[in-house]
């Protein structure tokens, strides 16, 4: 029998309805018991994180996109050997890029962050980009875009941060949101992102806490 399709449905002003994803872990690398269908919190206020407990209805959570969000657009930064594709609109601020390769990803021109693909080897850049959980970073070689990694479907509950989604789960919502990479993306669970359902790094600024996971 074919494997059941892995789907994440974004309920309007409510939780993420996850279907057929059994690999669910937290930042402590603990396996969380998953069900065939489960509701994961995205308002940030559940007392049973990462699961929804209905609190979104009490706190008046809204899942709408906000006007003043970062532009959701892939920008190209061409180097001699590799082109970096960078979409800051879906960046989860996980820090793998500027933390591992600041000479490429933490460089500025006129106070604007501009990646410099010639400041490191092609191999170093590709290795760093593959660590990006949000899909904000990808790369192009010889005209072909590389933005996917073949993995089993999984959800990782990051420490005080978003849900890391991997393995091609299909994302469904009423506005047709599309992740930059179909294979991996990050979904907001603090309730504060201006680019819902995706994480935009707001959890860092509102000091979102989830001590259990």
Task: Provide a short characterization of the protein structure.
By secondary structure, the protein is of the alpha+beta class.
CATH-derived architecture of the domain at 75-146: 2-Layer Sandwich
Instruction: Give the radius of gyration.
Output: 17 Å
Oligomer: single chain
What average pLDDT do the residues reach? 93
Instruction: Name the helicity range.
Output: 10-25%
Low-confidence stretches: none
Number of strands: 14
End-to-end distance: 34 Å
CATH topology description of the domain at 75-146: Alpha-Beta Plaits
Category by helix and strand content:
alpha+beta
Portion of residues in beta strands equals 15-25%
Tally of individual helices: 5
Strand order of the largest sheet: 4-2-1-13
Query: What is the N-to-C order of secondary-structure elements (H for helix, E for strand)?
Result: EEEEHEEHHEEHEEEEEEH
Characterize the biggest β-sheet.
4 strands, mixed
Structural shape: globular
> What's the CATH first level of the domain at 75-146?
Alpha Beta
Explain what you see.
With 213 residues, this protein is of the alpha+beta class. It has a domain at 75-146: Alpha-Beta Plaits. Helix content is 12%, strand content 23%. It is built from 5 helices and 14 strands. The strands form 4 sheets. The chain has a 4-stranded mixed β-sheet with strand order 4-2-1-13, with no helix packed on it. A 4-stranded mixed β-sheet has the order 3-11-12-14, with no helix packed on it. It is globular and about 50 Å long. The model has no long low-confidence stretch (mean pLDDT 93).
């Amino acid at each position: 029998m074919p494997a059941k399709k892995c789907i994440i449905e974004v309920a309007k002003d409510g939780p993420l309805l996850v279907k057929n994803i059994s690999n669910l872990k937290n930042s402590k690398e603990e396996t969380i018991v998953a069900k065939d269908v489960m509701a994961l919190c995205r308002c940030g206020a559940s007392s049973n994180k990462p699961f929804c407990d209905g609190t979104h209805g009490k706190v008046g959570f809204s899942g709408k996109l906000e006007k003043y969000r970062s532009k959701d657009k892939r920008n190209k930064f061409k180097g001699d050997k590799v082109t970096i594709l960078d979409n800051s609109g879906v960046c989860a601020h996980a820090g793998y890029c500027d933390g591992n390769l600041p000479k490429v990803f933490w460089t500025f021109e006129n106070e604007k962050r501009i990646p410099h693909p010639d400041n490191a080897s092609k191999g170093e850049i590709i290795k760093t980009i593959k660590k990006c959980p949000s899909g904000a970073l990808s790369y192009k070689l010889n005209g072909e875009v590389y933005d996917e990694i073949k993995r089993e479907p999984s959800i990782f509950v990051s420490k005080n941060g978003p849900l890391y989604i991997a393995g091609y789960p299909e994302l469904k919502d009423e506005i047709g949101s599309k992740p930059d990479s179909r294979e991996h993306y990050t979904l907001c669970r603090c309730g504060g992102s201006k680019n819902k359902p995706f994480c935009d790094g707001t959890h860092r600024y509102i000091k979102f806490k989830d001590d259990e996971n």
